[in-house]
Amino acid sequence: MRVLLVEDDLAAVGEITQIMRGAGFTVDHVQAGEEAVEMLRHYDYDLAVLELMLPDIEGYEVVRRARAARVTTPIVVLSGLTRPQAKVKAFSVGADDYLTKPFDPDELVARMQAILRRSKGFSEPTLRVGALRLSLDSREVMVNDVPVHLTGKEYAILELLVLRKGMVLTKDAFLNHLYGGMDEPEMKIIDVFICKLRKKLQAAGAGNLITTVWGRGYMLREQLQRMDMEEQPVVQKEREQVVAA
């Protein structure tokens, strides 16, 4: 999942970024409130973590402007302000959670994961799609109670597909999710990742959960009885690319 961290204390940035990346998040960082508003308006983040005391505008104003622009990204305030009035004001302008500094790393990750689940329509940390079971907390994938061993990139792709089940995701969306706009490889690498992921899931007995939507991208369905005829050449091409690689 991709997170925007809004924090002007560089020492705190290093610590928080390390915690988030250790939990499997892709992190973008900005120091100023104005920049945070622009990033939230123009990029599709799964979550934002925000300090209230920023060098240009207050974090309250960041939340207010984002909500006024109809940005629905969940926002967690992580601030040194501990008084109740600060928390009340943050919630009143549209924040989703509030955690004070100093904080416990495990609690921060747990709160982020809980908000992400709720924002995607899930109430439990384990997500189920047919025989597939994916744990957001442990990053484990099971099919019929048998572990499926995935690489970090394969897991990140599957996690995104499961969280946005039924939605068509473009290759740009996958690249953005995996690399956060930095050092992105060629777009065809997504076809390779998807093909390898499909093979592992099918070998484990999960069936054809991931389908190609011609000219648009990929999506995950609850059940896929058969593959559309227009999708067959695309999947065959993916297999050829993997063999060639």
From TrEMBL:
PROSITE patterns (UniProt xref): OMPR_PHOB, RESPONSE_REGULATORY
Xref: InterPro entries: CheY-like_superfamily, OmpR/PhoB-type_DNA-bd, Sig_transdc_resp-reg_receiver, WalR-like, WH-like_DNA-bd_sf
Residue ranges flagged as DNA-binding region: 124-222
Every Response regulatory domain range: 2-116
KW Transcription regulation (keyword) present: yes
Source taxon at top rank: Bacteria
Residue ranges occupied by any OmpR/PhoB-type domain in the UniProt entry: 124-222
Gene3D superfamilies: 3.40.50.2300, 6.10.250.690, Winged helix-like DNA-binding domain superfamily/Winged helix DNA-binding domain
Transmembrane residue ranges: none
Keywords: DNA-binding, Phosphoprotein, Transcription, Transcription regulation, Two-component regulatory system
Record-linked PANTHER family: REGULATOR OF RPOS
Name by which UniProt lists this protein: Response regulator
Organism: Acetobacter conturbans
Lineage: Bacteria, Pseudomonadati, Pseudomonadota, Alphaproteobacteria, Acetobacterales
